[in-house]
Amino acid sequence: MPSSLVEYSCNGPFFHDDRVVRAHDGILRYGGLNPSLTELLDVAVHRYAGRVAVEEDGGRSVTFSQLWKSASRVAGGLKERGVEIGDRVAVRQPVAVRWVEAFLGVLLAGGVPVGVSPALDDTQTGMVIADSASVLTLDGELPEGVSYIDDGAGPEELVLLSYAPGTSDFPRGVELSNENLLSTIESVIYARGFSSEGLRNLLVDPELHTVGSLVELLSTLVIGGTVLLTASSDAASWRGTGADVLTASPAVLLGAVENSRVTSFGRRAVRWIDYSGAGLPAEQARLLRRMFPDAKHILCWGMTETCGTGLALPDECALSHAGSVGIAFGGMEVALFGPDAARGFGELLCRGPGVMRGYWNSPEVTAESFTGDWFHTGDTATIDGDGFVRIVDGDIAAKAVRKAGITP
Known about the structure:
Blueprint: E1 4-8, E2 20-22, E3 28-30, H1 37-47, E4 52-56, E5 61-63, H2 64-80, E6 88-91, H3 97-108, E7 112-115, H4 122-132, E8 136-138, E9 158-164, E10 172-177, H5 178-192, E11 200-204, H6 211-222, E12 226-230, H7 235-238, E13 245-247, H8 250-259, H9 264-268, E14 272-276, H10 282-291, E15 296-301, E16 311-313, E17 327-328, E18 333-338, E19 345-351, E20 358-359, H11 363-368, E21 370-371, E22 374-383, E23 389-391, H12 394-404
Parallel strand pairs: 4-12, 6-7, 6-8, 7-9, 11-12, 11-13, 13-14, 14-15
Antiparallel strand pairs: 1-18, 2-3, 4-5, 9-10, 10-20, 15-16, 16-17, 18-19, 19-22, 21-22, 22-23
């Protein structure tokens, strides 16, 4: 049976945003975006100058104005070292305030940050630096100079080069534009219902070199919130943070609630639980809800190529659709590809404003990864009639679909 591409609409009552409209190229896009990430952040800095922007566990905290001032000095230092517009600069700092200053400094210098995982050894790090043609690596003391701010970038320009696992041993550089990041930030803020009242988002063991963690950080800063950085997975240590939002992987959250007797933190303070993954079984979803009964639970799915997100399971569907990664939101659309696509099973395809420009230095791989505007995720999925997506084991699901004659 020949393969086919079947689009699945999501016109339900969840995450509808009137700002998302279909553009002349057929892709859903946000209207009224700032031209660049630096301009959006500059607005936040001036609006919330005296608020605390970032706190590190047991370390520094900086206000928005202090963060912007130190980042602009890093930008000045980078310019003095010859960094030009569009130059890639590798960031290999420990996750702390200094990491954020380094990242923003590269942006303000007009450069393109390249996040390097601390888990990579020297050989792998060298390969990423060489492949990205990074002109500098920020892995120690940061350069400082006369304050400098470049905010002349446009929506289509490269703003981040993020390396993701590929089919080979070497990761692929994923090109993300200003529009990719700006659209994703807008969608995350809207879907979670974040306000500008100064919420505190506790990022547990974040991997800021990945776009998923980075979007969480940026989405919090844009609304004048405080980003709390901690490497501790002990729920007892979270109690004194005053966090409104708890952002962690499902494994970390489940381990914390199973191993800690501290429940008052979740019951009295947390208003949002934010985690990513391939869907939670009903039993685990119930456990998290018992521990954080008053919080809004949001499970998200995404890839580096989709700017770290694109699908979300609404809070009210956490139990009724346990195991699902949710529905498309923020302009993302989904389709299935394969011989059983019309019956709700196949390879998951995505398109939308958060989908990457392409793979760095890999035009052939980029071309192979798209069918028209649709990006091939490589994940096998089922989609029901309401647009809920479930990531599944390909062989098992194919047999079940064919045996039962399942239709979406």
